Amino acid sequence: MSLFSSREWWSTRLGTAEEFDQGSIAIANIDNDTNGNAKIITGSLQGVLRVHLPHQRGYHVEDMLLETELERSILQLAAGNFLGSSSICLAVLHPRKLAVYALQAVGSSYLQHSKIYEHHLEHTAANMATGPFGGIAGVEHIVVQSYDGQLTFFEQEAMAFSRFLPSFLLPGPLAYAAASDSFITSTAGLELVAYKYSNLAAASGSKEQQQQQQQQQAGGPPAGAVSGKRIQADWTVVLGEAALDIRTGRITANTRADAPADILVLAEHTFFVLNLRGQLLLQRRLDYHPACCWPFPAGPDSSSSSSATANPNQQQQQRPPENLLVATHTKALMVYRGQELAWAARLEMLPVAVRVAALEGMQGMIVALDDTGKLAVLYLGSEPPKQSVSFAESKQLDYAAMEAERKALLTQIKAAGGAGWDPAAAAPAAAAGKGAAAAAKDLVLRAQVPSRLDDADRIVREGGEGPPGSNADGVAGFGAAGGAAAAGVKQLTVTLLLSNTTKSSMKVVACYRSADKQLQCSQLALQLPMILFCQVIPPVKSAEYKVTVATNRDAAQLVALFGDMLVQAHPAHAEALSRSQAANVMSFHFGGGQEVTILVSKNAGRYRLQADSFAAMWLVLQELSRRLAGHFAAAEAKPAAAQQQQQPPPFSITFDESLPLQDVFELVDRHFALRAALAAANEALEQREVQFRSVQKRLLVRYKDRNAAPLNQLDVLMEETYDQILDLATQMEQLQAELLAAGQALGAGVQLLLLLTRFRFKLAAEEFELLRCALSPVVLEGPEVSWEETTEAAMTHLLRSALARSAKDAAAAVPPLAPAADTARLKKHISLVLERLSKGMRLVAGSSSNNGGSAAAVAAH
Question: What region holds the PTHB1 hairpin domain (predicted)?
């Protein structure tokens, strides 16, 4: 393996979020320039066609000659003489169309394309090949291979004929050998097959006729008159591997000037070289996974490489023996001369296609394209050093002075209380250090969450900084210094400041390096205080949403349950509630303006939550259930309660009303409508960006033209387009903010629905976790698939697995995850899941429903 790296001479990034494949690049003098400069033509699977002409090292704006959108995916590009004249045209293969374009220069730095002719394909195309089929000189024809094995031949504006390959399953690489006038492809049976053009032209045309001929040769009864011959392969070679690429060129050494070309096959683990009769000339086993290959002329006689890249099948008899360029999945570039590895270099990219061409008069430039759209022009070799290496004059070392300095430093160390290195004391000290390191290997986290918040003025110091070790973003870094140490254990206190949090719980993660330099992590989950989100206010009577839960205990006093909230409440209101021991109402005010009120029944253990916002009730209900469970657990654990002979049943919370599905569905529809509005605004913004860039390019051409031409209101159009882009960007910012708020409201509404579902159906802890994973309260936004699609897929999985009514439902096929058109299916599946839970079906087989509202289970969530 060589230690050299490939050097980048020129590179650019082709668009954003575009994909490219092996046939997405071609190099040719596509505009028929008299100077013969080769251009780099690329086409993405998103349908964008670009033409570049590098002029000097590094990318410049003038290097792009053309960028246009063809509205269909571009599968493959090919340049050649498709009109019968001396001009070169561009063939573009789409999934259902083949188009041929002519590119002309407009001015000195711009190209425009015009469609010459096109053919609509009956079957979905896979790849194509070009060449002088039938030995006709001066013109090239095109053959397109479809995914069902049909070869369609086109002669300029006319479709000549089409043939179906026999025993076809999957399409493979397709190449044309002009010397034998045959087509070489690979099959799903890991074979290499060659078909003569004359045999394909004389064979029967339809697939039905070919099947009838196969039945007749098998001895079956005749099905009618059949015209034409059966397609017969010229030769077949078993490869035993899937072919990645097929090329033609003179790889083997042959001194004859009229020696025919070789067939090069790049497989998954081997590359093969065969002659035109299918005889194996050489093969080499590869110890890596190849990505793509390209043959190129060796030696100084490679001036025609730029024109040969347009069609590697032309003028093969005039080519000298060629080298083979192979790019690997390990980001390496291999150069083979015959069967021997001549050179290897490291790449900074993983190309899907490589070419060798002459650019700006420099022979042997390597053009590489990866699947993400990075286009680079590389060369092999090394660069000269930028600075000359200078050697300083060495002076003789004075060892006597060095020894005297060492003794003086040792004397100073001993005078300061230290000691020199003692070999006898080194071993015990090392053992003690290892013991201390082993003792401090583990990190134990302990968190203390105050129920009362400090004032901001008290925690901010005079210099405007927080306390040591604190960070407003919730991340703190510290070194090895700590507090008191005992037996090699260090204690370290870190204070974290939280601001603008939207979660009721948090996770503390500490990452550290152990004594053996290994990176380790410890984490601790904790509950945030309720005072961080809301505060107590005077009772509010008006409310739009109401939820009532019941317990199997007598009503508890709200003053005792929410004593920590009264500490930081308004003094007048806190004093009034403290004096009234039988206070049965308490209201909370959130930072977003929502208000939630708790009403306690005087006769039974019933609690009503009412609010003006449906999503705001979940936090108060969760805190109420957690505090009730802790309150009664502590009361029943007292000695007086333990002496009672009759033990009460476990504490539980029930919900007897119907679940508020309609309120949750309103939040779902609101979130989905904002997603659709944001997608429409994004699409409109992309269209305006394309329009702005097109107008900008046209204006640039007008301004650079020596002969002044009228602008035709292009400047006005550009200004209006710019204003529209600003308006759409502002609109998208507003929609993104609204979508974020709608997602938080949806997550809070789902939290409330999950709590009420658990109280309603007395779900066990394991069942509740499964339901929470399927109906997740965490709303994640995606470019195409978001919370609605993932939740609908999870609900479908529950209905076809744990909640399936029959084996037929469980065996139904699961549809692929795709963007949803509306929310009707999601709402239907959520209703079905809750309906089957109400009928007694369980998410976990054999689970008991008696512990669904126990104190331990409620306090855990």
Answer: 658-760
Per-residue 3-state assignment (H helix, E strand, C coil) for 394-428: CCCCCHHHHHHHHHHHHHHHHHCCCCCCCHHHHHH
Whether 63 contacts 12, CB under 8 Å? yes
Using CA atoms, how far apart are residues 41 and 54, in angstroms rounded to an integer? 12
Determine how many CB atoms are found less than 10 A away from the CB of residue 317: 14
Question: How is residue 493 annotated by DSSP?
Answer: -
Mean pLDDT, to the nearest integer, of 665-676?
93
Query: What whole-number distance in Å separates Cα of residue 124 and Cα of residue 461?
Result: 70
Average of per-residue pLDDT across 136-164? 93
Q: Please report where in the chains the tokens 């004075």 appear, as a residue.
A: 398
Q: Which residue has the tokens 């347009």?
A: 310
Q: Which residue type is seen at 243?
A: A
pLDDT band at 259 (very low <50, low <70, confident <90, very high): low
CA-CA-CA-CA torsion sign (100, 200, 212, 222): positive
Q: Which of 95, 96, 97, 137 is nearest to 115 (CA)?
A: 97
Q: Which residues, 6 or more positions from 58, have their beta carbon under 8 angstroms from its beta carbon?
A: 10
Tokens of 386: 């930028």
- At 488, which amino acid appears? G
Backbone angles phi, psi at 374, to 5 degrees: -85, 120
pLDDT score recorded for residue 520: 81
Position 303 scores a pLDDT of 42
3-class state of residue 192 by DSSP:
strand
Amino acid at 493: T
For 530, the token pair is 């309720």
Instruction: Please provide residue 511's backbone torsions phi and psi, each rounded to the nearest 5 degrees.
Output: -110, 135
- What residue type is assigned to position 755 of the chain? L
Residue 761: how many CA atoms within 13 Å on its side-chain side? 25
Q: Any idea what DSSP says for residue 318?
A: G
- How far apart CA 331 and CA 344 sit, in angstroms, is 11
Residue 623 C-beta-side C-alpha neighbours within 13 Å:
26
Cα separation, 442 vs 440, whole angstroms: 6
| pTM of the complete model | 0.48
The CA distance from 757 to 837, in Å, is: 9
Q: Write a three-state SS string for 66-130.
A: EEEECCCCCCEEEEECCCCCCCCEEEEECCCEEEEEEEEECCCCCEEEEEEEEEECCCCEEEEEE
Distance CA 826, CA 589 (A): 33
| Residue 700: C-alpha distances to residues 12, 694, 697, 705 (Å) | 21, 10, 5, 9
Q: Which residues contact 693 (CB under 8 A, 6 or more apart)?
A: none
Residue with tokens 């570049």: 52
492 close to 482: Cβ distance less than 8 angstroms: yes
Closest Cα partner for 64 from 44, 39, 97?
Answer: 39
Q: Find the helix or strand (DSSP H, E) in which 838 lies.
A: helix 824-838
Helices (H), 110-239: 197-202, 207-217
> CA 645 to CA 729: how far, in whole Å?
71
The Cα–Cα gap between 355 and 366 comes to 6
- Read off the tokens for 835: 């309906």
Q: Give the number of residues written for the chain.
A: 861
Question: Of 851 and 47, which is predicted with more confidence?
Answer: 47
DSSP string, 625-636: HHHHHHHHHHHH
Q: What is the pLDDT of residue 640?
A: 58
What pairing do the DSSP bridges indicate for beta strands 111-120 and 125-131?
A: unpaired
Question: Which pair of tokens denotes residue 681?
Answer: 């605004």
Identify the helix (H) or strand (E) that includes residue 642.
helix 639-642
* Inter-residue contact 539 to 585 (CB < 8 Å): yes
As beta bridge partners, residue 26 has 41
Angstrom distance (rounded) from CA 361 to CA 381: 18
Q: Do 533 and 590 contact (CB within 8 A), yes or no?
A: yes
Q: Could you tell me the two tokens for 760?
A: 């309603």
Q: pLDDT tens digit string along 713-748?
A: 888 999 999 999 999 999 999 999 999 999 999 999
